[in-house]
Amino acid sequence: MQLLQPEQVQQIVSDDTQFKMHVMESLGRLEANMTSLCGNGQPGRVSKLEAKVDKLEWYCAAAIGGGMFGSYLLSWAWKIGSAMLR
Predict the structure, then answer these.
(1) Residue 29 has pLDDT above 80, yes or no
(2) Same domain, 38 and 51
(3) Model pTM greater than 0.90?
(4) Is the pLDDT of residue 86 over 80?
(5) Helix (H, G, I), strand (E, B) or coil at 39
(6) Alpha carbon 41 to its chain's center
(7) What phi, psi does 5 have (nearest 5°)?
(8) What is the domain extent for residue 69?
(9) What sign does the CA torsion over 49, 54, 59, 64 have?
(10) How many domains does the chain have?
């Protein structure tokens, strides 16, 4: 078994330190992204997106209901109009 030379040990320590710094920077970015998505006491992007989807679903339901009511009124007006022409 061969012993490591001092410069080899220094290189390993340096590589380890760089790796730890890289991991800590990555964790910091991950934490910032998670806070942005989920929020930290304030609504995050996911909560805001859910609220927008709920509002859009409500608008779609209202538009469909309005369209159905409008078609009912048109068919009713058509029947009244054709009955008056007889």
Answers:
(1) yes
(2) no
(3) no
(4) no
(5) coil
(6) 17
(7) -80, 155
(8) 47-86
(9) positive
(10) 2
> What's the average model confidence in pLDDT over 60-84?
90
Q: What is the DSSP letter of 41?
A: S
Would you say residue 61 has pLDDT above 80? yes
- Distance of alpha carbon 39 from alpha carbon 49, whole angstroms: 12
What integer pLDDT is reported at residue 44 of this predicted model? 86
CB 44 within 8 A of CB 52: no
Chain CA centroid to CA 34, Å: 12
Question: Quick one: average pLDDT of 50-62?
Answer: 95
Do the Cβ atoms of 66 and 59 come closer than 8 Å? no
Return the DSSP state at 40.
Answer: S
The length of the chain in residues reads: 86
Looking at the predicted structure, is the pLDDT value of residue 78 above 80?
yes
For residue 9, give every residue at least 6 positions away whose Cβ sits within 8 Å of its Cβ, in sequence order, or none.
none
**Quick one: 29 and 63 in the same domain?**
no
